[in-house]
Design brief:
The chain has 174 residues and is mostly beta strands. The protein contains 2 helices and 11 strands.
């Protein structure tokens, strides 16, 4: 009997039982996009001060105006609050203001930057990229009309006469 018990332990010791279970692991990536306007550039002024300003137009180049984060390809769009900027019964057409995008100090690799976007209440695409990026910078230049377009928009007694609109920048995944 003692031999039988030892033989049983020997046989059981050499044969092992196995149990297996599988686990499914998913890596789930959701799109994340953030867009931040440079805090020091939240107000942009196009100041017409001289005859040449009215004749040639004025511009304001805002370096690193936008900072973006995107987990993949994206588009940056812009739109104005309305198609007409009004003040004291006079108005300026928004589409006389041009918005020009370019690569900032931390450029988005392979991005396409729009060079001829006119401000509108409808969204327009400024930047398109098939790849994402972290803390990438975009320069924005705002350019007001020349050719004396705004000559008759000054209102006597106001110094300066100010026409205002709010711009909205949006980033979407692509």
């Amino acid at each position: 009997m003692k031999n039988l018990i030892l033989a049983s332990f020997a046989i059981l010791g050499f044969s092992t039982l196995q149990a297996q279970q599988n686990v499914t692991l998913n890596v789930r990536l959701k799109p994340i996009q953030t867009l931040v306007v440079n805090n020091a550039q939240k107000i942009v002024n196009l100041d017409y001060v001289t005859k040449d300003d009215y004749a040639d137009g004025v511009s304001s180049l805002n370096a690193d105006h936008l900072s973006i984060y995107s987990t993949g390809g994206f588009q940056v769009k812009v739109k104005g609050g309305n198609d007409v900027l009004q003040q004291g019964g006079k108005n300026i057409q928004a589409n006389t203001i041009q918005i020009i995008a370019s690569a900032g100090s931390e450029a988005v690799n392979g991005a396409q930057y729009a060079q001829n976007v006119h401000l509108s209440a409808n969204e327009a695409t400024l930047v398109t990229s098939s790849t994402g990026g972290v803390d990438k910078k975009i320069n924005i230049e705002y350019k007001g009309a020349g050719a004396n377009t705004y000559l008759d928009n000054y209102i006597a007694g106001q110094d300066p006469t100010v026409y205002t609109t709010e711009l909205t920048y949006t980033i979407i995944s692509q």
